[in-house]
Amino acid sequence: MKDTALSETHPNPVHPGDDSQARLDRLAALSQRLLEQCRAAGASQAEVSCNEDTGLSVSVRMGEVETVEASHDRGIAVTVYFGQRKGSASTADLADASLAATVEQACAIARHTEDDAAAGLADAELMATDIREFDSWHPWALEHEPERAIELALAAEQAGRDFDPRIENSDGASLGTGTSIGVYANSHGFIGRDRSSQHSLGCAFIAGRGEAMQRDGWYSIGLSADDIEAPAAIGRRGAERTVARLSPRKLATGQYPVLFSAEMSRSLIGHLLGAVSGGALYRRASFLVDSMGTRLFPEWFGIRELPFQQRGLRSTSYDAEGVATRESDLVADGVLQRYILGCYSARRLGLVSTANAGGVHNLQVRANAGGFDEMVRGMGRGLLVTELMGQGVNSITGDYSRGAAGFWVEDGEIRHPVDGITVAGNLKAMFQAIEAVGNDVDPRSHVRTGSILVGAMTVAGEG
């Protein structure tokens, strides 16, 4: 039977009676009213964030429903500046008295804090003026139909349990669907409105018995139900990954090429992002302090930020401080082009915001190789890492040591699973030793990268 998209197997994915624009209008009016109250209280600058989130999550295990949870959350955050003294307060209560008390509390905090030379709104000339939508609003009627959500989760789990008799247990399946709307406004006159949806379906299984048990799974996420894989496909893929890990062998300690699967490669890029983020840099708690303009990777390597992608997981016209986003290179020709900065960290470093308050927006890692099979063949002999464990990364020195599991590759083919090993190195050396990036991009993240081959790492196993 051919797998189809989740929304095709369960039609009518769009929520009827969408009132998101009216709710955004109400939040925008509320933010303006709060800014006026801050001004009347004597604040020299102020900013307000208003958010409303709704969602449904269900989980099942071994064919039975475990949880069904509906959520409706709201938050109002007010930040004021009296010169260079800052105060913040928040509430979920929209009653006039509660809102007035929130402004009063933020002002009281600001009056009792010390001056901070870097405090204040982002500069007015950096504010976004062209605010667009990026096809990120796809609410799903399933949010109001828990029975159908349970049906989908059960279908995914059952497909995995039926895949192989060695799967005798399940860690369950879960489905989540939700929407978020938000308004950010500040006393520069900036007001930004945003709305987005996100949906997910995943499952995990246990194969084998006793000490020979192995666990793995699979999940799919997207802004639209159209982006979610079919439940049966998710279940079968999760089961296939689980049984592939059965009967792992040990690996002799040595130096080997290491191929990080696409989902594991994201963590390597994540370590780079942490090291070049403003907070770590101005605290000098990064192994990449003073590295802007330095070659960190091979000459062909690049990472570009693409905030304007349609249906991108982190597309936006402005960052969390209202600063206009832009396409730009983080790494080009192997050289670190810039840091990741909001206005506060930029001022602490004597630089300008890179429109990354709140994080990065749709990073694309440049590929120089083909798909996953080609990457495995190209490695020839070495370790394929499909799971990483532990937090053994020193952000100050770049020393890297993490528990791992995966597969041994010989003559360009996957031979057998391995576990109980540790992969170690130093991130600076690992970045330089990257030999290839595949085009097998895992779409389930705003950091889009294929599998990454590191030429040599220490692998600690037996002996």
UniProtKB/TrEMBL annotation:
Keyword Hydrolase tagged: yes
Instruction: Please report the stretch or stretches of sequence annotated as the Metalloprotease TldD/E N-terminal domain.
Output: 46-110
Provide one Gene Ontology biological process annotation.
proteolysis
UniProt xrefs under SUPFAM superfamilies: Putative modulator of DNA gyrase, PmbA/TldD
Question: Record's superkingdom?
Answer: Bacteria
Metalloprotease TldD/E C-terminal domain residues: 253-461
Record's keyword terms, sorted: Hydrolase, Metalloprotease, Protease
Please give the residue ranges the record annotates as the region Disordered: 1-20
CC per GO annotation:
cytosol
Give the Metalloprotease TldD/E central domain ranges.
Answer: 145-246
This protein's record includes keyword Protease? yes
Family of the protein in this entry:
Belongs to the peptidase U62 family.
Designated name of the protein:
Metalloprotease PmbA
Q: What is the lineage of its organism?
A: Bacteria, Pseudomonadati, Pseudomonadota, Gammaproteobacteria, Lysobacterales
